[in-house]
Write a structure and sequence with these properties.
Length: 328
């Protein structure tokens, strides 16, 4: 049986300080798209976005917001499948990746506003928004506050609330970070992200577990500082706020064995969205986009391209949710 080595790019990309919205360099990828890095500044905080351009798009640009431990390079494997449809945008928002440190007093509202600033600077009026885990909390707030800028909404591994046991763990991790107990934190976080052995068949479970542990345990001092501030941000701000959500095509997806943001939690989120759909990707857990990248990229491409996501060989049956007009 063949084995696969999992690798991710280093998060150390940086450029010299540039004016807001300045061009930071271009290249090309295997997808054929022209790559552009842009530095922006919002409310005094510098951040960076990565665009892979499609000059003949068939859909609106695709904006991907990854989880708190991901950066703008974490979705490189998806470019070959998504760029033929439209320009692909990934971003290190303030407080993440190589962007400026962001104090915890700034929450999802601020990050959603930073996204609006970015799209305005890029002259992009509407996007297909794909948002995973913590990126889902920011993405949903963006959709609530700036509905005219969202063409479609896909939430991955999303929940409407932070489980109390996870909140308690974050408080403990904050103390451990101060003590420098990174190996213990890495082990506990890996166990949180990955489904426990025996839960069900999960593709590449062992390999992805090793990757997650190595990434967390290998964090630099600045990355640990950002992680600690991120945990404080989670505790200080609303994860979900019951505000109106635009009636755009919406899909909530997760791994069928996700034990962090369970399928039941995903269904709760789908029920909050107008006429949303929900599905689970087979043989995967919370890290389905890593464990089953090829099929997950296909799912994203189908949804963002306006194709049917019914009866796919790698998902369980699609569930539909129709929110009543009086529901909040």
């Amino acid at each position: 049986m063949a084995t696969e080595t999992l690798t991710t790019p280093e998060s150390g990309f940086s450029t010299a300080a540039l004016p807001d919205g300045a061009w930071a360099g271009q290249s090309s990828t295997d997808s054929g798209g022209r790559v552009e890095e842009r530095e922006l500044v919002f409310a005094g905080f510098r951040f960076v976005c990565r665009l892979v351009h499609q000059d003949n798009p068939s859909t609106a640009p695709i904006l991907v917001l990854g989880g708190s431990s991901q950066d703008r390079f974490s979705w490189l494997r998806y470019e070959k499948r998504l760029v033929p449809l439209g320009t692909l945008i990934t971003v290190d928002l303030p407080g993440y990746g190589t962007a400026d440190f962001l104090p915890a007093m700034y929450g999802p509202d601020f990050l959603a506003a930073a996204l609006r600033h970015m799209l305005t600077e890029l002259d992009i009026p509407r996007v297909n928004l794909v948002a995973a885990c913590y990126g889902g909390a920011v993405g949903l707030r963006f959709a609530q506050h700036y509905p005219a800028m969202v063409e479609r909404l896909l939430l991955v591994g999303m929940t409407a609330r932070i489980p109390e046991d996870y909140a308690e763990a974050m408080r403990r991790w904050a103390v451990m970070i101060e003590r420098g107990e990174t190996s213990t934190i890495a082990r506990e976080l890996t166990e949180r992200f990955m489904s426990p052995p025996g839960t069900g068949v999960v593709r590449r479970h062992a390999a992805v577990s090793r990757l997650v542990y190595q990434q967390i345990s290998g964090q630099s001092g600045e990355q640990l500082r950002m992680s600690a501030e991120h945990n404080t941000r989670l505790m200080r701000h609303e994860w979900f706020r019951p505000e109106p959500v635009p009636a755009v095509p919406s899909l909530v997806a997760t791994g069928e064995y996700d034990t962090l943001c369970t399928p039941a939690m995903g269904r709760e989120v789908a029920a909050l969205l107008p006429a949303a759909r929900f599905l689970t990707v087979t043989e995967s857990d919370h890290l389905a986009p890593v464990e089953r990248a090829d099929v997950f990229a296909d799912l994203l491409a189908r949804f963002c391209g306006g194709e049917s996501v019914d009866d796919l060989p790698y998902t369980n049956p699609v569930e539909r949710f129709v929110r009543l007009p009086h529901a909040r």
